[in-house]
Design goal:
Elements lengths: L4 E4 L1 H15 L4 E5 L1 H5 L3 H8 L27 E4 L2 H9 L6 E3 L8 H6 L3 E4 L2 H10 L6 E6 L14 H9 L4 E7 L10 H23 L6 E5 L1 H6 L7 E2 L23 E13 L4 E2 L5 E2 L4 E6 L17 E4 L2 E6 L7 E6 L9 E5 L6 H7 L4 H6 L7 E2 L1
Parallel strand pairs: 1-18, 2-3, 2-9, 3-4, 4-5, 5-6, 6-7, 7-8, 8-9
Antiparallel strand pairs: 1-10, 10-13, 10-17, 11-12, 13-16, 14-15, 14-17, 15-16
Helix pairs in contact: 7-8
């Protein structure tokens, strides 16, 4: 296994799912968002764990499942992905729970949707007709209507939902399982954004009511993302779709809401140590000059692993032997360097924690690089082994 690896704390993931359940109460269903390979954590192991399946038997090729706990009772009712191939991968791994596809399905993917028994969110007649053409009356395909209430991304206009519902219910090959919307500023506590979210929810309810008035059951209603779960109890409806909060990060900035435990810990190792003299220059662009005689350690992690190059020169530090040491020079593709000082405490092959529970988090890196923790986590790519 590489020196650089991501430790995935399944106990923290489970605690975060339990916190969602405690917040929303016993009735709404939980749809765990595991898109983008579970935000970089590994979709198959985390999906199985959330559903109460044996996590130890789920590690993908190249991962180390040793020591991973057995899952207990199901903590989620269903799953959400962004792409059809993500859902198909889960099916191939033996996952039988309902799987929602949140993003737009391509025409050439409609057969894959049906074959993998996935639940697409649909926004237009064209896609409904395409799915009806390949689905079977012997096993009608479940669809959910996506309603745009103010995100401006995907979804039909609220006043058009009843027409789409009629098209679905009129097909022997389809059935309407529910309606969904997405809340664009539910993570904000500003008065204007709170009011906007309330308007979105009211619009969504009206759209669902228009479907009922047309004599059609709108099915399962769902709108709440992590921000709404934290700050808008009136958004819970029939199901919630937590995302970033499951992985240990607040949807709000500054962080607010229920306590969430970071799930990923990123580690590397000090692969080489050298002594440099005062005035010697280090890294590409001669971007760091030693202010005094010191030791420099090279870590086996770089931007090709997902450590942002923008972290260069920000003063971010890693943890080695319980002490912090700052990154110096530029983050390279496969390596980076730290100033170890001149006390000689750090030894070659010592472990270095880049971020994780009890230390800095992906949010600290995000602040240094002007982004959000979601991006930092998702960018820890597949060449970094996961240890569950």
């Amino acid at each position: 296994m590489r020196a650089t690896r991501a430790i995935i704390h399944l106990d923290n993931f489970g605690s975060n799912l339990k916190a969602v359940r405690a917040k929303i109460g016993p009735h709404p269903q939980i749809c765990a968002a595991i898109k983008a390979d579970a935000y970089g954590h590994g979709a198959i192991p985390l999906a199985r764990f959330a559903l109460g399946m044996d996590a130890e038997a789920t590690a993908p090729k190249g991962a180390d499942p040793s020591g991973s706990p057995l899952a207990g009772p199901p903590l989620a009712d269903c799953l959400a992905v962004a792409a059809v191939n993500e859902g198909a991968d889960l099916r191939q791994a033996g996952i039988k729970a309902r799987i929602f596809v949140l993003s737009q399905v391509l025409p050439e993917e409609v057969n894959d949707i049906v074959n993998a028994d996935l639940i697409p969110l649909v926004s237009d007649k064209e896609m409904i007709k395409a799915l009806a053409a390949v689905a079977s009356a012997s096993k009608p395909l479940e669809l959910h209507i996506k309603v745009d209430t103010g995100m401006g991304r995907l979804g039909c206009r609220p006043e058009d939902a009843a027409e789409l519902a009629a098209l679905i219910s009129g097909s022997k090959n389809l059935w309407l399982g529910g309606m969904a919307t997405h809340l664009s500023v539910a993570d904000s506590k500003s008065p204007s954004d709170i009011a906007y979210t309330k308007e979105q929810l009211a619009c969504f309810r009206q759209s669902a009511e228009s479907v009922r008035k047309a004599g059609i059951d709108p099915g399962l209603l769902h709108a709440a993302n992590s921000g709404a779960i934290c700050f808008h109890e009136d958004s819970y409806l029939d199901m919630v779709r937590p995302g970033i909060m499951l992985y240990g990060y607040s949807p709000a900035s500054p962080p607010d809401g229920p306590i969430s435990l970071p799930v990923m810990e990123l580690r590397s190792a000090v692969g080489f140590i050298k002594k440099v003299r005062a005035g010697e220059e280090i890294s590409y662009g001669r971007s760091w000059k030693a202010p005094e005689d010191t030791y420099v350690g090279t870590l086996s992690i770089g931007y090709a692993d997902g450590l942002p190059r923008l972290l260069s020169g920000t003063g971010y530090s890693v943890l080695i032997r319980g002490k912090t040491y700052p990154l110096i020079g530029r983050v390279n593709m496969d390596q980076c360097m730290v100033n170890l000082g001149n006390d000689g405490e750090v030894q070659r092959w010592d472990e270095a924690v880049i971020f994780g529970p009890g230390f800095s988090t992906a949010n600290d890196i995000a602040k240094k690089t002007s982004t959000i923790p979601h991006e930092i986590l998702c960018n820890i790519n597949k060449r970094v082994p996961r240890v569950y």
